[in-house]
Amino acid sequence: MTSKTSFWGRLQRDELEQLSREELLAYIYQEIEEGISISFAGKNTARQLARKVQPRVSKSVAKYSHGDEEDQARNTVIEGENLQAMATLYRERGKVNMILTDPPYNTGRDFRYNDRWEDDPNDAGIGEFVPDDDPARHTKWMRFMLPRIRLMHEMLKEDGVLAICIDHRELFHLGQMLDEVFGAVNRLAILNWQKSYSPRADNSHVSTATEYVLIYAKNEEFAKTNLLPRTEEMDDRYKSPDGDPHPWKASDAQAGKPRENMTMVYAIQSPFTGELHYPKAGTVWRVTPKDMQGYLEGWGVKYERRELDDAQRRADIIGVGEDEVPNVKAFMLAEPLDEAKQKANIVADTKPWPRIWFGKRRTGRPQWKRYLHEVKQGVVPTTYWADDDYDVPLALGSTSWAHPESGHSQTGADELTALVGDDHGFKTVKPLKLFYKLLQIWCPPDGLVFDPFAGSGTTGHAVLHLNAESGASRRFILVEQGRPDRGDSYARGLLADRLRRAATGDWAAGQQKPLGGGWSFLHLRKRVDAQALLSMEREDMTDAVIASYFDRDSGAGQGGALVRIPSQPDTYLVARNAYNEGVFLVWDGADASPVFDEEVYDAVVDEAKKEGLAPRYHVYARFNLHQSSDVVFYQIPNRILLDFGLSVTTDAYNVADEGDE
């Protein structure tokens, strides 16, 4: 089934000629259907950047990694520019369950733009801050975001979900771009969360106290919205004032859709007052007439069905003409009211009340006893979370979360200070509680979470916390460039430090319960093309091999199945895979690259035996002069280019040398 999206936008002729067959078909299908499109200066250029950006060689940095081999293989922190990182994560495309991210809001202090990116997204410059008085600041922000949104779309699985934070400054622009790329039909919700609980003098007209989370599915037909876990506070609302052995709470005795259930619109006579009760307009009684009689007679009173001249009354409730309503009899007392009232009062004073009851004073409208054991083991995420019990999930639409349910920005900043100390420099941080809820609703317990704007690492912290709390096994990939202009990086100086403290419990404010978990820390380095690969020294080529490695039999890629082995002088072994098979690199630098021949083969076999590896050898080399059934050969640079998702013919020599990065 074709996903309901509008991914490409309007392409020019030269752009069409660059598309693959699959991309061209996707574009044609899009043109057949109507969609939403946003126009802004530089859009055509921005649209092409996602296809121009090139992957990078990534180098593992042990100092900022954490955990044992298994833990490091599960999670990844990438230090580098996020557009380049998404291009490097080629093998993860289509595998992400949820993207949870917090991009720059374009406040005048948080967003950099490099004009050279419009021609070359691989340019190493970080750009200048875009001030809030720049007349082109909105178009610059959209040119920055559009290619990233398109790559985020590619990263998601067919049932994947994007949750992206934003405030009022770019809310409408972001929503229009998401409608274009994902398709408006795939918009699941616009969540409105309370970031502060006191007025702020930040606007001359209305104080801003809320921000937004836009929720889009890659394909809403496959996306799943989960219930949230119930809390003790929710369960404590269920009592037993009548001595019922099962805790319960009062609920509405009515439900919707009267046109579809006309026989469930009828009169009920109260055994306490004799008053006739009908459902409210547009509703029906929530139980069938057969069940209703049993609940009413539970008061020790006899009832009979009796015709009343009330067709017009019932028609008004349903919203149809009098001639359209069926003949439905009312539930009337079959004995005098005084006798019925006496019997009903005895039951009310001495026994658990029936499920249809009439209020604590016994003079109200019919109500329904909702038992705790019948309530779903979860909470529907809609409106304010005090409305915690529903029979069926409700459409999310546009919803509001007050700060007790989602946390607020000051809470997030305080949480970060408690973890790493008060010199982190972040004034506004998303509260963990907000991210907990989003992950619980839209990421399965074993899902993969991706955050291309990782900042201080709230997403990773939330994943570690939920895994520890519920025994889940969610994984994360976080990307953060940080502030290289200050000689530091959020990825190293803040993000990795925060995750380490959360994992170990070593908080700045005092020891806390360790959350466990681990991650590998990767630094993006040189861009990848044939010329760059062939000019690499051995250490850089080793990084390229491990970063690009893809096991086509198991589907494991991006180095996730490789464990680096410290290199020794005059050896070829660089890593082992998940099957305990060795990965060997026959490469001594650009000026001297030996070929794989029989002599090298013998050395490879000896190295594998010394390490206790299986007798199957994965060999990377420029040329192969020895054939053997136990050797899997990977030609340099072609195989590395292919495993990075690049074309050997078009991406081989198309980037000028940029020097050492």
TrEMBL record:
<dbReference type="Pfam" id="PF01555">
    <property type="entry name" value="N6_N4_Mtase"/>
</dbReference>
<feature type="region of interest" description="Disordered">
    <location>
        <begin position="234"/>
        <end position="255"/>
    </location>
</feature>
<dbReference type="InterPro" id="IPR002941">
    <property type="entry name" value="DNA_methylase_N4/N6"/>
</dbReference>
<dbReference type="GO" id="GO:0032259">
    <property type="term" value="P:methylation"/>
</dbReference>
<dbReference type="GO" id="GO:0003677">
    <property type="term" value="F:DNA binding"/>
</dbReference>
<comment type="similarity">
    <text>Belongs to the N(4)/N(6)-methyltransferase family.</text>
</comment>
<keyword id="KW-0489">Methyltransferase</keyword>
<keyword id="KW-0808">Transferase</keyword>
<protein>
    <submittedName>
        <fullName>Type III restriction-modification system methylation subunit</fullName>
    </submittedName>
</protein>
<dbReference type="GO" id="GO:0008170">
    <property type="term" value="F:N-methyltransferase activity"/>
</dbReference>
<dbReference type="InterPro" id="IPR002052">
    <property type="entry name" value="DNA_methylase_N6_adenine_CS"/>
</dbReference>
<keyword id="KW-0949">S-adenosyl-L-methionine</keyword>
<dbReference type="InterPro" id="IPR029063">
    <property type="entry name" value="SAM-dependent_MTases_sf"/>
</dbReference>
<feature type="domain" description="DNA methylase N-4/N-6">
    <location>
        <begin position="96"/>
        <end position="479"/>
    </location>
</feature>
<dbReference type="InterPro" id="IPR002295">
    <property type="entry name" value="N4/N6-MTase_EcoPI_Mod-like"/>
</dbReference>
<feature type="compositionally biased region" description="Basic and acidic residues">
    <location>
        <begin position="234"/>
        <end position="249"/>
    </location>
</feature>
